[in-house]
Amino acid sequence: MIAATDDAVRESAGYLFAAPTDFFAAVWEAVWGAYTALFRGAVYNDRVDDFATQIRPLTETLKYSGPLIAAGLGVGIGFRAGLFNIGGRGQMLLAGAAAGYVGFKLDLPMIVHLPLAIVVGMAVAALWGGLAGLLKARTGAHEVITTIMLNWVAYYLVLWALKQSYLLQTPGSANPKSLPMKDTAILPDLLGDRFNLHLGFLLAIVAVAVMWWVMNRSTLGYRIRAVGESPTAARVAGIDVGRTYVTVMLIAGALVGLAGVNQTLGTTTSGVTPDLDAGIGFDAITVALLGRSRPLGILAAGLLFGALKAGGFTMQTSENISVDLVLVVQSLIVLFLAAPPLVRAIFRLPSKEAK
Amino acid sequence: MVSKKTPIIVGVLTLALAIILLRRGKSGDTTFRLARDSDFVQLPDVVLPGMVSAWVLLIVCAVMAGLSVLAYTRTRPTPAWVLAVFAFAWMAGFLCWAAIGGRLSVVSLFASAIALAVPLVFGALGGVLGERAGVVNIAIEGQLLFGAFAAAITASTTGSPWAGLIAAMVAGALIALVLGLFAITYYVDQVIVGVVLNVLVVGLTNFFFRQVLTPNAASLNSPDRLSVIPIPVLGDIPLIGPVLFRQTPLVYLLYGIVALVAFALYRTRWGLRVRAVGEHPMAADTVGIKVNRTRYRTILLAGAIAGLGGAYFSLVSVSGFNREMTGGAGYIALAAVIFGKWDPIRATLAALLFGFASNLQGVLKVLGSPVPSEFMLMLPYVVTIFAVAGLVGRSRPPAADGIPYRKE
Amino acid sequence: GEEPADEANGGNEPAASDFLPCIVSDAGGFDDKSFNQLGYEGAKQAADEFGVELKPVESNSENDYAPNLESLVAEGCDVIVTVGFALAAATKESAAANPDIEYVLIDDSADGGEDGQTFDGKADQPNIKPLLYDTAQAAFLAGYAAADFSKTGKIGTYGGMPFPTVTIFMDGFKQGAEYYAEEKGKDVKVVGWNGKDGSFTGGFEANEAATNTAKQIIDQDVDVILPVGGPIYEGALTAIEDSGKDIAMIGVDADLYETDPNTQEVVLTSILKGMKVSTYEAVKAAGEDNFDFEPYVGTLENDGVGIAPFHNFEDQVSESLQSELDEVKAGIIDGSIPVTSYLNQ
Amino acid sequence: MKLELRGITKRFGSVVATNRISLTVEPGEIHCLLGENGAGKSTLMNVLYGLYPADEGEILLDGEVQHFTGPGDAMEAGIGMVHQHFMLIPVFSVSENVMLGHEATGFAGTLDLAAARERVREISERFGFHIDPDALVEDLPVGVQQRVEIIKALSRDAELLVFDEPTAVLTPQETDELMEIMRQLKEAGKAIVFITHKLREVRAVADRITVIRLGKVVGEADPKATNAELASLMVGRPVELVVHKGEAQLGEDAFVVEDLRVVDAAGHVNVDDISFTVRAGEILAVAGVQGNGQTELTEAIMGLQDHVTGSIRLDGKELRGRSVRKVLDAGVGFIPEDRQVDGLVSSFTIAENLMLNRSFKSPFVRRGAVRFDVLREFADEKLKEYDVRARDIDSEAGELSGGNQQKVVVARELSRDLRLLIAAQPTRGVDVGSIEFIHKQIVATRDRGVPVLVVSTELDEVAALADRIMVLYRGKIVGIVPGDTPRETLGLMMTGERPKDVVA
Ligand SMILES: Nc1ncnc2c1ncn2[C@@H]1O[C@H](COP(=O)(O)OP(=O)(O)OP(=O)(O)O)[C@@H](O)[C@H]1O
Ligand SMILES: Nc1ncnc2c1ncn2[C@@H]1O[C@H](COP(=O)(O)OP(=O)(O)OP(=O)(O)O)[C@@H](O)[C@H]1O
Ligand SMILES: [Mg+2]
Ligand SMILES: [Mg+2]
């Protein structure tokens, strides 16, 4: 039935110019119908019998949430200090590439290998983020510009490294893709082979906890907040604003880097590619804002986005909703979530008419 | 206090060029083409002995660097003419070296820089206007894309690219309207709305592109291109003519809009009020200016301008819409807004610098630069970082930028 | 791209048979005017012949490959076409987990073994059929033709991004032009590709970067240009128009003359990469239960790659060109004219 | 124009800012509103001006009920207001600020700046202001900005003028000039509402006085009442207007500044080779018209200025060249002149603001963590001790009235273990009750043997606190004189002249 409505969408799309209202009515119906699919794909699948398969969507949601949460924290901490870090893409790419390099190149026992790969990835991303912070602190260069530009620089850097067999490229292959990760560098599955959920999610949760403590309990967080709320007052109070910017961008880079690491060592372990960021660097901005830059808010927003992603596949395959409409639905959900008064206005309308 | 930055940058650049010339000497002539085949006045090609010319220009650079240091020691800023001469000599010297054995069309060097910058300038103007009124517009990308989309369809169905331009403006304004609804009326964080709108537009245009445009490409997605229309007389001036006045009407429109926006923003009542609302909405309110109404109007206009930039993609660069064809230009435009310190002229210059660097990158690669293409492709981005860090420094946004205005 | 339109009534009809072909795109999407689109069209054609529905799934990012495959498996697909080297790993994984499903992988050999370095010339999973195309061979012919056609002695090429599936065209093109120069003792210069590196627009969007790169190449007095990468040829089209000169363009993947009528005035020829046919055949074979897992390599010999007719340029190319090309083609097929590419290095 | 407010109530959440306030202002009358910080004066005026809708009550002008939907309507009706927090756009020129909202335009909406300039000049001349119409507001000293606000109101020919604490940032001379202007306006038949905390001013111009406390009218006062009577009516208890301070117990030369020179980014010399000494247990007051280098002097001491030469020694240790943090660590307490920008983080709670410059060391910090228990205890204590009127320590600083914000800053600085106190405009915009309190605290700090540098443009304050007075003019010291130097002499010195009978 829902499939039929989607076909209705397509049909009406054909005569869009003749009858636009039909089209939008159809879209709306399809969107509405999509929710069930979304739910089935993101939380609980009621169409299968065994419990493990039933809750599998939930674990998928968690898997997708991991990097979104980590990167969301990275963008969020920037916001708390008054910095707009659009550099998630570049930071993730470099983190993924560096972690990947360690992951496929070295031969080490897992206990050393995995942590080393994670730390290297995060450290490289931290430096990349810190670079934007340093430029801001030293020259006043606006972080929005530098991070956007550094995204591209990182992208081409990774692309280049993927053509050098002494760096990332698989020897003997011409494709811009590295070797797969060694088993000792792969984030282990949390719930066994049947589920894709891996340690990356737990790391993201740990990051949430750490960030919560840092922002709400530590003096560093206190100073970051002070700088974010009033750089002038912070300066008079002896807080070195420039140094704080650098620190924040280092931390932000490391957190976004965790998301990148999560990608190469957890979600797609088959090797480093130039697209490993998978748009998460940008999604993280919305996640951070939706979560009001608070660690727990980001956790919630990250879970929501993870659910939207996981559910999106089911929406596409089983409901025949094009991947593009999935994007549309996702963005509408976010917009309306961000504007509770608007939603209230919409839903109050009928009640007013009733009077 | 005079900043050390300028003499240092100038010195380092001079040194860098010297090292290039010393380390990678080449032999041969460099041909500079000063006219295009189609030009009215055919200036002859200039053929220079590459290395010798480069060395001469390097010496000019060194002298200018010396003057800059001298100015610094006298605690004076480096005079603008010194910087101008330096920039010219450095670029010319570098090109003399880089183009040895090849042909370099000077006209194309600049004309293409403008062409590459056009959508960025439109986008940046849209951004500048919005932010001047206190509304951060991250949705430039979405406005460009939607503008490109609407322009292609409308121009195809009506058969008139001009109708396409109007549709692009409407499309851009439509996005601005949504931005306004959420950000101004419902106080949703402007950055969220912007980012999400970009995603929304990608989704919508991709969907329609596939479902509607691709199957009906002949009727819906094959607009007539806005072609180059040389301006009589002006277009025949040697060098300048082909660079500035042998462009598409959209580019002429751009000249007009840049001038108009710059003028209106600083010289008219409308501009004064827009700026007031972006700097101190409460103060504007206390003198009876309707803050949110002004903001709405301004972003609608800004959206229309950005939308026009979108039309450049589907009516000028190529004819027809393609999925995600703006490829991040909106974000570069956003950077130009900030780089240009929220000023229409400076933002335009910032976009032009970016356009120049992208074009240079391609030109050098075609001439056979030994640097890997990935690094060449980085050039415009790296140049921007250096320019922002080295020359621009701190920039101050309009004080109320991004802050919704609510009374209590 | 005609297909998506007549899909509108596909959903309501019951499937004629229970054969379910499926296809996953890479991040380019099915309207990329390149391999995703051709793969889709081929699979669609096969599905239509069987009177069944094709289940297409697009990916937005590399994160989506595995889940998309998973959900297709869950949907009960019998054959899954995956497009692009980027999907190789996900395909291998899915294939390993679902030995009953047949996989068709376009543009990658799925070879390399567990460690990614053990190449045995076969796909690592027995149920994957790789479809590969030695487009350098066809591009060689195009380079030869271009060199012959060029009056300025300069021909040019540029790509979207420096990926091997892109540069293989540029490689063959350059070799063909050089072969021509050597044979004829003429001076032919290839602009935009030096055998290792060259001009790229930095993406696969038809935008000003694409147009401008083409212009820069044309500025070097080039009169035949080969843009490689989805819709970026549209930039060349614009650049040619703006230059006001007689410049010919060479298309890639499919016959541009047919797929984009706007180009008919300027396409000299196109380098054909038989993705549509080979995908069609693979899916068809799967539906008829005579699927084989031998890697398919499209060559001039098996007509998996080739060049399109000269169409409007028929009477502009030199008279002997077609026969020379036939000779060169035979030479390539019998190995007397070596063409190197990443597939045979 | 006659104004009548009837039963105006305005609530902010649970705070009742004004509680059924009624008020009448006749044409040709200067009506003073007196009240403590946070009494609701500004709120009442903002309601009148259409900025906030009233929850209850009505506004009548010449007997007619008004329904303002915004300030535009109020201005239209002939109300002009000089706001407590300036409503000027810093990056605009004076003319642009003045013309905003009722711009004269020429062809195609182009601004007629010439007309605006003319208008500014005309009004300036009428009232004896010296204002460059093309100067950017942000470059002007606050006193001048104040005049721009007045010109703005006058340029619209308002019939009713509201002055909300216009004198808080003015020098004595400027204040006198403003009083004169108000009298002129009154003569011209305008109705004036004047809000101030300075009783001297009230007595100088008021025709009628209404006292507000805790959002309610508590009564009218006679303009001839004594300062003490007014003050106690306002605060609801007797107030000591002059702080009793004992003889200074002078210690050694604890704070020594030599040849200090401060240059700004544009190369202007703001502090020009000045040298002075403050002894332990002494208050040195720095007097001078705003903008004569006081700000730069205090900022240079704090390490907030970039280009400083000379020497700044505290207890023999050099402070110049140290970071702000090190200066603070050396025991320097600093009350910055602009509390909203430099003194407080307005979105932080009171408690959080109380540890603003102690985020590195104990008592509020242990191993990188903030000790919130200690902080809260401390904050509760200070809230009581300094009588900060706030819901509790978790109120945001930005919600507090100006006086209460100032108390938070003072509480923070004075509760540290100080070796030197620098207080810039410590009681700007603060009500009499709080002034008394803050002055007492400063004197008590002196009596603990701490050298104190007070910067003030307020001669009353200088007289109340100073053991010695240093007058600055254009970055140079005009003279350092005893604390009991007469007002007139000081006033003269502030114009750069140095009377002969003054001993250094
Ligand atoms: N003025 C400052 N503003 C902001 N952060 C600072 C400042 N000084 C130090 N930090 C940060 O505090 C942390 C501790 O630094 P550091 O080791 O210098 O502190 P400390 O040992 O307390 O100081 P010191 O050794 O100078 O007495 C570091 O993260 C540092 O970046
Ligand atoms: N926008 C607001 N939101 C919430 N509370 C407010 C707001 N404005 C004022 N208040 C509260 O209303 C009360 C009255 O404030 P108001 O500014 O009118 O005082 P005031 O008499 O002008 O004080 P001062 O002399 O310090 O200027 C105070 O308790 C203040 O905290
Ligand atoms: Mg007040
Ligand atoms: Mg230390």
Q: Short description, anyone?
A:
With 355 residues, chain A is mostly helical. In chain A, 74% of the residues lie in helices and 0% in strands.
If you compute it from the alpha carbons, what radius of gyration of chain B comes out, rounded to the nearest whole angstrom?
A: 23 Å
Give the chain pair forming the largest contact, with residue counts: B-C, 50 and 45 residues
Task: Give the SSE order of chain A as H and E letters.
Answer: HHHHHHHHHHHHHH
SS element count, helices of chain A: 14
The proportion of strand residues of chain A reads: under 5%
List the keywords.
heterotetramer; A: 355 residues; mainly alpha; ABC transporter involved in vitamin B12 uptake, BtuC; 2 domains; 14 helices; 74% helix; globular; disordered C terminus; C: 345 residues; alpha/beta; 6-stranded parallel sheet; 6-stranded mixed sheet; 10 helices; 12 strands; 36% helix; binds adenosine-5'-triphosphate; binds magnesium ion
Could you describe the 3D structure shown?
The complex is a heterotetramer of chains A (355), B (408), C (345) and D (504). Chain A is 74% helix and 0% strand. Chain A has 355 residues and is mainly alpha-helical. Chain A is globular, with a radius of gyration of 22 Å. In chain A, 66% of the residues are buried. Helix content of chain C is 36%, strand content 16%. In chain C, strand 6, helix 5 and strand 7 (189-191) form a beta-alpha-beta unit. The radius of gyration of chain C is 20 Å and the shape is globular. Chain C starts with 20 loop residues before the first strand and ends in an 11-residue tail after the last helix. Mean pLDDT of chain C is 88; it is low at 1-16. Chain D has helices spanning 41-48, 71-76, 94-99, 113-127, 142-154, 172-187, 199-205, 227-235, 294-302, 324-329, 339-343, 350-354, 372-385, 402-414, 432-447, 459-465, 487-493, and strands spanning 3-12, 15-25, 30-35, 56-61, 64-66, 79-82, 160-164, 191-195, 208-213, 216-221, 253-263, 269-279, 283-287, 307-314, 317-318, 332-335, 365-366, 369-370, 420-424, 452-456, 468-473, 476-482. The N and C termini of chain D lie far apart (53 Å). By secondary structure, chain D is an alpha/beta fold. The chains are: A mainly alpha (355), B mainly alpha (408), C alpha/beta (345), D alpha/beta (504). Chains in contact: A-B, A-C, A-D, B-C, B-D. Chains B and C meet through helix 4, helix 7, helix 13, helix 15 and helix 16 of B and helix 6 and helix 7 of C. Bound molecules: adenosine-5'-triphosphate (ATP) (2 copies) and magnesium ion (2 copies). Residues 12, 15, 17, 35, 37-43, 84, 399-403, 431 of chain D line the site of one adenosine-5'-triphosphate (ATP).
